[in-house]
Amino acid sequence: MISVQEAIQQIQQQTIQLPIIEVDLEDAIGYILQEEIRADRDFPPFNRVTMDGIAIKFSDFEKGVRTFAIQGIQLAGEPQKSLEGQQTCLEIMTGAVLSEGADTVIRYEDVTISEKEGQRFASISSENYSRGQNIHKRATDRKSEDLLVSPGIRISPAEVAVAASVGKKRLQVNALPKIAIISTGDELVEVDQIPLPHQIRKSNVYAVQAGLKEQFGIQARLYHLNDDKEVLHSRLQEILSAFDVLILSGGVSKGKADYVPEILDRLGVKKAFHRVKQRPGKPFWFGATPDQKVVFALPGNPVSTFLNAYKYVFPWISTALGQQASPQIFAQLAAEFTFKPSMTYFLQVQLKYNPQGILQAHPIEGKGSGDFANLLDCDAFVELPENQEHFRKGEVFSVIPYRFGFSSMR
Ligand SMILES: Nc1nc2c(c(=O)[nH]1)N[C@H]1C(S)=C(S)[C@@H](COP(=O)(O)OP(=O)(O)OC[C@H]3O[C@@H](n4cnc5c(N)ncnc54)[C@H](O)[C@@H]3O)O[C@H]1N2
Ligand code: MOO
Ligand SMILES: [Mg+2]
Fold first, then answer.
1. How far is the CA of 185 from the centre of ligand 3 (A)?
2. According to the model, what pLDDT value does residue 45 have?
3. Cβ 217 vs Cβ 31: under 8 Å
4. Same structural domain for residues 244 and 310?
5. DSSP 265
6. Which residues form the MoaB/Mog domain (predicted)?
7. Pocket of ligand 2 contains residue 304 by CB under 6 Å
8. Residue 273 and residue 235 in one domain
């Protein structure tokens, strides 16, 4: 039996070739960017007016001028105009290019407009102005050619906005792996069926499928196989040939119908390890074929499948997609906890910020790895190391969040 650390290492060593493809900007959300996005012009590309009002020369104001002859209007979307003469101004709008010769914008709220003999004038009311106010100066955010987004970043709405502004209609990203999620077990029935007293509806595989969709935008296919060696052999052979990654649930422990490891072996999937020193999820089996088909065979108990998906499968997919490693999240244990066996314990917790802004993990242990309803009361697992038995209140441990809001932190 290997440790959690060794299991992570062996999994992360497993590579897979995913081609780089181009996606339309409108479809790019959630993909991992595989090119640099650079500024094609300065940000902002011109001295951009930030308030509707009048553009003046500040030197006029310094000389005591308070009333300016209005020379015209500079709208957003019009080529730059020029402010001519002394004691003059242009009415100017948010988003317009600051007129040549002007250096300061005074908002309409501080201006009174009057008219005399066909000439319009703008008088300013307050004296609290400064040179350059209400102007977003060219190149103060980013400079032309600056690197804006590096490869390996997951594309969020912010990256989409920036890509659009630099004219990237299409983006290079990693193709998503083709993933099959396979439930095994004679006791399982479909979601839309009424189970007999000895049956249950399958739930694990839907959770894993939803996690893949939420985290990577991957739409995995679901399969179900009964506990029958020949069926498992022939169907898994077909599925292996059609997919890059297989995620199985169930059939990996010591039971009389736990055939999965044996069948995978017969199919030429080379075992990297079977069983990890952890609870839940100990009977986890992992391996790959010589042609890099990767197989995660997760223990069937629902919390085991769930934990193993978040702890091992999703981080591996993230690496396979070339995603930059996200920072580890830590939380303080909000109550003491004891776990004696010499294995890593993934404690279920509710995450809350205390009034000091510290993330705290409140243990809600549940009734073992079959108690998947307990996942509803929690947000995360806290990883308690194997070489420790007593975990004090206030000690800090790494957490594996699965709730929206925590899970999508980078
Ligand atoms: N003698 C031993 N027995 C068991 C051991 C052990 O070390 N020695 N390990 C236990 C642990 S830990 C786990 S976890 C389970 C793992 O079992 P399997 O991977 O073989 O899974 P199954 O036997 O097929 O099912 C276990 C349990 O989970 C339910 N299940 C399975 N698939 C689904 C699904 N898709 N949706 C919902 N629920 C599912 C299944 O009905 C069983 O109740 O083995 C222990 N036994
Ligand atoms: O993973 Mo098992 O379900 O540790 O209990
Ligand atoms: Mg079993």
1. 9
2. 98
3. yes
4. yes
5. H
6. 180-319
7. yes
8. yes
- Judge if the beta carbon of residue 200 lies within 6 A of ligand 1: yes
Domain boundary among 285, 320, 355: 320
Q: Check pLDDT > 70 for residue 10.
A: yes
Cβ of 254 less than 6 Å from ligand 1: yes
Please tell me whether residues 210 and 313 are part of one structural domain: yes
Q: What is the CATH number of the domain that holds 193?
A: 3.40.980.10
Into how many domains does the chain fold? 4
Q: If you average pLDDT over every residue of the chain, what do you get? A: 96
Residue 170's CATH number: 3.90.105
316 plus 182 within the same structural domain = yes
User: Is residue 182 lining ligand 1, measured as CB closer than 6 Å?
Assistant: no
Ligand nearest to the CA of 278: 2
Grouping H, G, I as helix, E, B as strand and the rest as coil, residue 315 is: helix
Q: Are residues 337 and 228 in the same domain?
A: no
The pTM is what? 0.92
What was the pLDDT predicted at 127?
Answer: 78
CA–CA gap between residue 369 and residue 385 (Å, rounded): 18
Tokens 């934990």 -> residue: 307
Residues whose CB falls within 8 Å of the CB of residue 405, separated by 6 or more in sequence, listed in order: none
Nearest partner of 148 among 133, 168, 132, 128, judged by Cα: 168
Residue 126 has pLDDT above 90, yes or no: no
Ligand 1 contacts CB of residue 252 (under 6 A): yes
Q: Do 299 and 180 have their domain in common? A: yes
Query: What local confidence, expressed as pLDDT, does residue 326 receive?
Result: 84
**What ipTM was assigned to the predicted interfaces of this complex?**
0.98
**CA 53 to centroid of ligand 3, rounded, Å:** 74
Q: Of 115, 118, 123, give the one whose Cα is nearest residue 89.
A: 123
Please give the residue range of the domain that contains residue 166: 24-43+148-174
